[in-house]
Amino acid sequence: MTDGELVRQTLQGRNSAFEDLVSRWSARTLAFCHAKVGRAHVAEDLAQESLVRSFRALGTLAEPEKFGPWLRGIALRVCLDWLKNKQTGQVTFGDLGGDRREAEQFLAASDDGPAQLAERAEQLRQLMSEVERLPDELREVLMLYYYQDVTYRELAETLGVSSATVNARLTKARSLLRERLSRASR
Questions:
Q1: pLDDT digits (tens, 9 = 90+) for 84-130
Q2: 172 near 145, Cβ under 8 Å?
Q3: Cα dist. 25→34, 68, 113, 159 in Å?
Q4: Tens digit of pLDDT for each residue in 149-175?
């Protein structure tokens, strides 16, 4: 069933159709938000807010087949609002703890000893720090690609660019990360 059909069914009162849209688009929305704000715990809230706003505004969607790009626009506005509020000095409790949950999950998946765990934690911290320093368009494509298993074509459609552009951005992002991480390890 297409996005357009699901949108039309939702507008006719079948809420389970919107649940199908959410399951289809939630991972992409989360990845997009994470790429924009650089913090997983904040991205979860922003992605959820984006989906809620899309449900409330679904009646304003002129072309139901373009639900994905429309949702991405909503997510972009939600992220920009959050970034603007952050710049004005609003700090959430989650901001104080960093991405501790992610790091704990990463470390708990290992049977290594304390020294190896400390080394893995440092590697994760360095990697995420470098990912967050990437230019927006590179960070966005990298986060979207690794958050979910999608083809270049699907990613190109989501971002509104060509598959060649997706390939070029991923190649450049990986190259920059390799270069920066190798410099950091010297």
A1: 876 544 333 333 333 444 444 444 555 556 676 677 677 777 777 88
A2: no
A3: 14, 7, 39, 13
A4: 677 888 888 888 898 898 899 889 888
Average pLDDT, the chain: 80
CA angle (169 as vertex; 166, 171 as ends), nearest 5? 105
Ordered by where they begin, the domains of the chain are: 1-97 (1.10.1740.10)
Q: What's the 3-state SS for the chain? A: CCHHHHHHHHHCCCHHHHHHHHHHHHHHHHHHHHHHHCCHHHHHHHHHHHHHHHHHCHHHCCCHHHHHHHHHHHHHHHHHHHHHHHHCCCCCHHHHHCCHHHHHHHHHCCCCCHHHHHHHHHHHHHHHHHHHHCCHHHHHHHHHHHHCCCCHHHHHHHHCCCHHHHHHHHHHHHHHHHHHHHHHHC
Residue-level pLDDT at 26 = 92
Closest-CA residue to 66 (of 7, 147, 18, 1): 7
Q: Is the pTM of this model over 0.70?
A: no
Half-sphere exposure of residue 180, counting CA atoms within 13 Å on the CB side?
16
